[in-house]
Amino acid sequence: MPKIVDHEARRQELIEASWRVIAAEGLEGVTMRKIAAEAGCTTGRLTHYFADREALILASLRTSYDVTGDRARQAIANNTDDQEKLLQFAEEMLPTDKERLREWKVWIAFWSAATVDKTLAVENDARHQAWAEELADLIKDAAPIADARQEADLLIGLINGVGLHAAVNPTKENLDRARRLLRDHIKQLTG
Question: What pTM was estimated for this model as a whole?
Answer without folding.
Answer: 0.88
